[in-house]
Each structure stands twice: as structure tokens, then as C-alpha cells.
Amino acid sequence: EPEVTQTPSHQVTQMGQEVILRCVPISNHLYFYWYRQILGQKVEFLVSFYNNEISEKSEIFDDQFSVERPDGSNFTLKIRSTKLEDSAMYFCASSSKDTFDHGYTFGSGTRLTVV
Amino acid sequence: LAKTTQPISMDSYEGQEVNITCSHNNIATNDYITWYQQFPSQGPRFIIQGYKTKVTNEVASLFIPADRKSSTLSLPRVSLSDTAVYYCLVGDMDFGNEKLTFGTGTRLTIIP
Question: How far is residue B84's CA from residue B105's CA, in Å, rounded to a whole number?
Fold first, then answer.
């Protein structure tokens, strides 16, 4: 079964540092997403990406965040200057137009800890 | 966006059938009902999606009454590995680009 792959699985960074979280979506999917889940809280939408541009973003996705699809396979989330409250699990997901029988496929996540 | 309400937690014994019901009174005509499963420290995993009546796949069934104001996820003969949080989501999934809005879900615990 195709998977969404995320690296690294864990990342510890100092407050104020930049981090890049990486994702390899399923190869024939066209829509890409980032979600996050603070420990013990809901899974929250951050951003969706289609045709090399952001299609929608949440209030959480402020100027500190950016996404990029630098090549045909990777999809990255950059946090420019991390804050303590950015500590969370970050999940990448992808989907195709025909999601009805398969839904959105999520990766296993990157646990980001800001110290 | 239709709000969903589901039980915070449920317990069941191994081998039983588990039914988790979700209310979505304000569901719109274009909305589908989707269920996801999440294990600790993992991303959500798609279980099943439907629009009306009954949908069945290899892992679950989804029952949706005619008024579509609720839905029931049915897990047959659960095992310990089905212990997870189950989320009911409602939204227009027709375009493949709909953001998913997760609630708090139902924490299902399977007891040996």
C-alpha cells in the first residue's frame, strides 16, 4: 500500500531556530497538506497545496510558516523562527481527486520539540 | 461546516461488534461523512466514507439514515489492536481538496 513518508521522525530544536520538515507524498497524488497536533489536542489543519501554490491556509499558518515543493517528489514545511508553542506532531497528507474510496493518506508524523 | 458530536470514549470487549454514532444535524447536501482512526503518535488513517445508506469495506461498515443527520461506524469483532481514537468528519469531499476538520473523536478501548 502506498505511503506518505515523513522525515525526520523526531526533531529537537532551540527556540528561534529554523526547521524544515520533509514529506514525500504518494506519487500520483495532486493535493498536499500539513496538519499538526499539539499533545493531547485535536488534529489541526495548517495548509493545503495544489498546482504549486497554496490553496488554503489556517490562522495558525502565519508568516513564520512556508511550504514548498522543490522537486517532483518532496513537499516541505519550514518554520522560520520556532517558538515553544510550535512543539507538536506535524503530519503531512496527500490526496487525489478520487479520494472517495481511499480518503486522505497521512504520514506517521514528525514530532517537533522546541526547547 | 457541519459540527459533529460523538461520544468522548467507549469501552468494549474483544470479539464484540462496536458501534460508534456521530451526530451531524447541520449536514449539507454536498457533504460526505468520513471516519478516520488514529493510534498514539501516528497520523490519522482513513477507514470509510459514505453519503447515504450503507457502505461496507474490509474493515468497517458505515450506516447513514435517510435524513443523514447521524451516522454509525460499525467495527465487527474488535481486537486489542482496534484501541484508538475514531474521528467522524463531515465535509464536501467531492473535489479532493477539502481541508479536514477534526473534532476530539471517540477514544475506543478494547478490553481483553
Answer: 10
| Lowest mean pLDDT segment, chosen from A25-29, A81-85, B66-70 | A25-29
First vs last C-alpha separation in chain A: 36
Kindly report, residue by residue over A83-115, the tens digit of the pLDDT: 999 999 999 999 987 766 778 999 999 999 999
A53 interfaces chain B, CB cutoff of 8 Å: no
Chain A contact set for B104 (CB, 8 A): 42
- Chain B: give the shortest CA distance to residue A5, in Å: 11
Q: What's the half-sphere exposure (Cβ side, CA atoms, 13 Å) at A87?
A: 11
Q: Write the single-letter amino acid at A30.
A: L
**B97 and A95 in contact by Cβ < 8 A?**
yes
Size of interface A-B (CB pairs under 8 A): 62
Of all residues in chain B, the one with the smallest CA distance to A102 is B46
In chain B, residues with a C-beta closer than 8 Å to the C-beta of A109 are 41-43
What is the distance of C-alpha A64 from the center of its chain?
14
> What is the C-alpha separation between A5 and A110, in angstroms, rounded?
10
In which residue are the cell numbers 453519503 written? Answer: B51
Measure in Å the smallest separation between the Cα of B103 and chain A Cα atoms. Answer: 6
Q: Dump pLDDT digits (tens) for A32-90.
A: 999 999 999 999 999 999 989 999 999 999 999 999 998 878 999 999 999 999 999 99
Residues 6+ apart with CB under 8 A from A61: A46, A47
The answer to whether the beta carbons of residues A58 and A66 sit under 8 Å apart is no
